[in-house]
Amino acid sequence: MSIGLQVGLLTVPFLLLAAWVLPDPISRAVIVGFTVALIVAVSWVWFRYRRTEVTASRYGIVETGFLGGVHVVPARSIARIIRLQLYRGTSLETSNQLFAVDRDGHCLLRLRGAFWDCEAMDEVSAALGVEEEVRPEPVTTAELRRTDARMLYWWERGLHARTDGQRGER
Question: 10 Å Cβ neighbour count for 109?
Fold first, then answer.
């Protein structure tokens, strides 16, 4: 709801200004069309974000992603939960992270603190009932790339990084 209010507060003055300043009806139509397209795009993103869901139980995880895909992870595939604090970019701010990993250390589910609060992470961890490892010291993405690259998204690993510990070819 609040995002709709923000979009409205940003676009309504713009539309009024365009209608007042621009003498050409074609220019007005272009501005209005662009604004309507922006509102539709923001509404779609908001709707998809609200539909994102993770359900965890002793049977496993069902994740409905941002683009609508459903990813199911059976409980037998989950070896442990890793919780840590990850530095955000080059700042000293950290973000909570939860990783459900398999026996080889590959990430099966990742909950990032930017989107999920600690209570949601606690619920997922408790529902799965697997070993939980809490790392006390915050780490950078570079440190995590060196120690646990398999837990990161492909774009966080680097262009030529491989997850088996070998250097990738160019």
Answer: 19
